């Protein structure tokens, strides 16, 4: 395959330039401006000599669709640019990124530290499957570096946390956490789904690995499921090997949609950040709202850390409506613009009550122990006009 000679933009360009141009120009077989969808499961060799050269590492090319595809390789390069990492691996979903990473990096019978405010399925994987490998887990409060240090054991291999977390949007002091982790040889893995590389680049703060549910802001259009892990060549190598064996790869169509979605990441994040900040401030003043969690508000426990580490606070606002379960349901149902749906990070606003969406199967006292109250609402701002979203919220709150 002959490569065209105009190189990808150099490192150090802004996130929007990298999002539009990164990873694509220097790798095109033709002069197409957009990377095509390579809809193929396998790649042919001219003769056995070519195959032998490939097997001996003298030739870099694709072989079989589970090990690589030019469409998803373009996404991987673009995400390296955006996160400031050496290597990226794409996965079929965010869950696949987390589970494959755990399986690849955790030694048998080792120890893992995770934070309590965490996507429920990640927690389920740890409890239900990692225990079978003898992995012991300690759960700590997010954003408490002292508790993290106290939890470290001789066999602790990984500290895994979201930042911001779900649903309370706690922000981890990554540089301080990394400083402590390094003293004990613990790897720090940050699920940056809620931040996106536009708002926070955890690798620059010293994290060993960043993972994403690319289903959310990276894809940005509520139309694909995908995941990604980004880090050094050294840390990614066993993860890439694991995805080749476990098989949770993305497909070329989803990779193309992800590539397309990524091009507007900078613009979309700007609007998500602005919408969420305005809505959070408006909600905080509303008499029917008991509490708002948004890192861009001074009232948020991690506002200072978030202001230091993040260049924007994201598009999700979590709040407690001052009513009972039925009142909260009346409020959610009265909203006319957001869809009632799980997920976040797309151009369409989505609204959900965690109690119904993810935790309804648990007894109420167990839900409350996890901080999931009856009036809790998670609102993922889309890129709509903020005045329209606020007017819609206002009329919905009047109907409680
Ligand atoms: C923070 C976080 N990580 C991971 C996931 C899982 O991602 P996916 O749904 O793409 O498997 C989610 C899903 O909501 C999430 O919110």
The backbone outline, from C-alpha atoms, is globular
Which CATH-level-2 architecture of the largest domain? Answer: 3-Layer(aba) Sandwich
Largest sheet strand order: 1-7-6-5-4-2-3
SS-derived structural category: alpha/beta
Question: Do you know the CATH topology of the largest domain?
Answer: Aspartate Aminotransferase, domain 2
Give the H and E element order. Answer: HHHEHEHEHEHEHEEHHHEHEHEEHHEH
**Residues in β-strands, percent:** 5-15%
Contiguous helical run count: 16
Q: Report the count of strand segments.
A: 12
Taking the sheet with the most strands, its summary is: 7 strands, mixed
In short:
The chain is 39% helix and 14% strand. With 400 residues, the protein is an alpha/beta fold. The strands form two sheets. It has a seven-stranded mixed β-sheet with strand order 1-7-6-5-4-2-3, sandwiched between helices. A five-stranded mixed β-sheet has the order 8-9-12-11-10.
Annotation keywords:
400 residues, alpha/beta, Aspartate Aminotransferase, domain 2, Aspartate Aminotransferase, domain 1, five-stranded mixed beta sheet, 39% helix, 14% strand, globular, binds pyridoxal-5'-phosphate
């Amino acid at each position: 395959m002959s490569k065209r000679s105009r190189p990808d933009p150099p490192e150090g360009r802004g996130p929007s330039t990298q999002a539009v141009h990164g990873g694509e120009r220097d790798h095109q077989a033709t002069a197409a401006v957009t990377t095509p969808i390579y809809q193929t499961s396998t790649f042919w060799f001219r003769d056995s000599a070519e195959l032998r050269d490939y097997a001996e590492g003298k030739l870099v090319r694709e072989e079989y669709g589970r090990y690589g595809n030019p469409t998803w390789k373009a996404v991987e390069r673009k995400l390296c640019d955006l996160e400031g990492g050496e290597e990226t691996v794409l996965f079929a979903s965010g869950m696949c990124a987390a589970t494959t990473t755990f399986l690849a990096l955790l030694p048998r019978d080792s120890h893992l530290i995770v934070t309590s405010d965490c996507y429920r399925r990640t927690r389920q994987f740890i409890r239900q499957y990692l225990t079978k490998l003898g992995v012991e887990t300690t759960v700590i409060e997010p954003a408490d570096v002292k508790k993290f240090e106290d939890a470290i054991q001789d066999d602790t291999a990984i500290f895994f946390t979201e930042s911001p977390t779900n649903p309370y949007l706690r922000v981890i002091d990554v540089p301080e956490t990394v400083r402590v982790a390094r003293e004990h040889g613990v790897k720090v893995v940050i699920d940056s789904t809620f931040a996106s590389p536009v708002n926070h680049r955890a690798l620059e703060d010293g994290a060993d690995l960043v993972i994403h549910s690319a289903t959310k802001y990276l894809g940005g259009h509520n139309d694909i499921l995908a995941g990604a892990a980004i880090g050094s060549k050294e840390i990614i190598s066993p993860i890439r090997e694991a995805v080749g064996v476990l098989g949770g790869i993305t497909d070329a169509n989803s990779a193309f949609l992800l590539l397309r979605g990524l091009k507007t990441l900078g613009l979309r994040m700007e609007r998500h950040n602005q919408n969420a900040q305005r809505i959070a401030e408006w909600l905080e003043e509303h008499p029917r709202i008991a509490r708002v969690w948004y890192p861009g508000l001074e009232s948020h426990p991690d506002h200072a850390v978030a202001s230091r580490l993040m260049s924007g606070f994201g598009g999700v606002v979590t709040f407690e409506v001052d009513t009972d379960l039925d009142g909260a349901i009346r409020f959610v149902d009265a909203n006319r613009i957001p869809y009632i749906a799980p997920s976040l990070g797309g151009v369409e606003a989505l609204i959900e009550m965690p109690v119904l969406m993810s935790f309804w199967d648990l007894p109420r006292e167990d839900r409350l122990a996890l901080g999931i109250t009856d009036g809790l609402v998670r609102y993922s701002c889309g890129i709509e006009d903020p005045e329209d979203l606020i007017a819609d919220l206002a009329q919905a709150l009047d109907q409680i």
